[in-house]
Amino acid sequence: MNLQRLVSPLQFNSATQLEVSQASALANVLSRACHNDPYLTYLIPDVEARRIVSPWLFFSMIRAGRLYGEINTTDSGNGAAVWISPLYGVSVRRVIRAALMSMPVGAGCGIARRCLRVAAIMEEVRKRLAPVPHWYLMALGFGTSQPEKAGREALIQPVLLRADSAGIPCYLETFSEEKLMFFKSYGFRITGAGRIPGGGPNFWAMTREANDTAG
Question: Closest by alpha carbon to 23, among 80, 105, 74, 76?
Answer without folding.
Answer: 80
